[in-house]
Amino acid sequence: MKIIRAKDYDAMSRKAANIISAQVILKPDCVLGLATGGTPVGTYKQLIEWYNKGDVDFSEVTTVNLDEYRGLPRENEQSYWSFMHHNLFDHVNIDPNRVHLPDGTNLDAEAECRHYDEVIRQLGGVDLQLLGIGGDGHIGFNEPGPAFDLGTHCVDLTESTIEANKRFFEKKEDVPRQAYTMGIKTIMQARKVLLVANGAGKAEIVKKAFFGPVTPEVPASILQMHPDFVLVGDEDALALI
Ligand code: PGA
User: Fold this and answer.
1) Which of 56, 119, 135, 213 could potentially form a cystine with 21 if both were Cys, beta carbons 3.0 to 4.6 Å apart?
2) 103 catalytic per annotation
3) CB of 38 shorter than 6 A to ligand 1
């Protein structure tokens, strides 16, 4: 595990974007695993800026996102498909055919999850997986509890995740109750994992996940076992370690 300390959110975003653009420069046809949430938005902004300067080229890149709400059509403003287009894909030269997210409108959970794992397998796996971390240690929508050995699967969102995500919806009742998510096994199979964390609100969980015991009760703790894991955090998020 490597820990990179950044002064603030902007510095964290620049460092994370640097790691991603290095990956794209070294392997232009790489597979990037991408994440939604508030934390990576600055990283995507930075990548867009460097793309506009001609420093990074996404034309051969393929992406697979971590998760999608079950039941939300892509066009819904709150779908992760929309999030990724607004925050990254619409602003860079990525080929729309190389962008993958689970299909939230396929209500056959088993078929959709099997299909998504097969997409990742056929792409040859993920070169670099970007992650945020939830206050309860979730990565993707892998909430505390289930075993570490799952591929893509359907989850019931916990009350704390629904609470955390309601800020993006008009009202709490609009937050979908289920999602399709890559599993811990899928995430651990990525060749490199980059987790971004910022703000004092993440300090406790960062300490618990990366300096506490490895346990399914803190899903992100498994990353301690990953052979190429980088945590980029700002001073507030890393304050307790
Ligand atoms: P956040 O979410 O980046 O909005 O804090 C992180 C997560 O829940 O994975």
Assistant:
1) 56
2) no
3) yes
